[in-house]
Design goal:
about 140 residues, mainly beta, 2 domains, two-stranded antiparallel ribbon, Thrombin, subunit H, elongated, single chain
């Protein structure tokens, strides 16, 4: 029978932790409150970034700091933590006829409009109201 009581090398080779300057490779899934998956990665295309460089949301870094390789964590990113406080100047009112015919638009639908990512925040049979989320490079 094989077993391990203690690893004598443990003191000399501590398990790495996520912290300032470390490179992080992670997979994630982002869901709306409704349970709809809106963003995510997979094993073939993970998110890779340098911790502390500003490449990801500050909230994500706050939640993963100190984690070891292979660790999993589930947390909520509130809208203001992702996009800042609500700003009425970023709300666009667009007549429905300006959208392609046959496109089903409802609250939460993500669209690309003039190199910006937008979300439908309200929709009727005649008008769509969009909230700008971010500029797409």
């Amino acid at each position: 029978m094989w077993g391990c009581r203690d690893n004598p090398l443990k003191k000399d080779f501590p398990m790495p932790q996520i912290g300032p300057g470390t490179y992080v490779t992670m997979e994630y899934d982002a869901f709306l409150e409704s349970g709809t998956r809106v963003l995510g990665t997979n094993k073939k295309d993970p998110l890779v970034f340098r911790f502390g460089s500003g490449e990801v949301l500050q909230k994500i870094e706050q939640e993963i700091v100190g984690l070891h390789p292979g660790a999993e964590r589930e947390f909520v990113v509130e809208p203001e933590e992702a996009f800042g406080e609500f700003d009425k100047s970023r709300v666009l009112r667009v007549p429905l006829e300006e959208f392609p015919k046959g496109k089903k638009l409802k609250k939460g639908t993500l669209l690309k409009v003039r190199a910006k990512r937008v979300s439908v925040s309200w929709a009727t049979s005649r008008r769509i109201i969009l909230c700008s989320i971010s500029t797409i490079p």
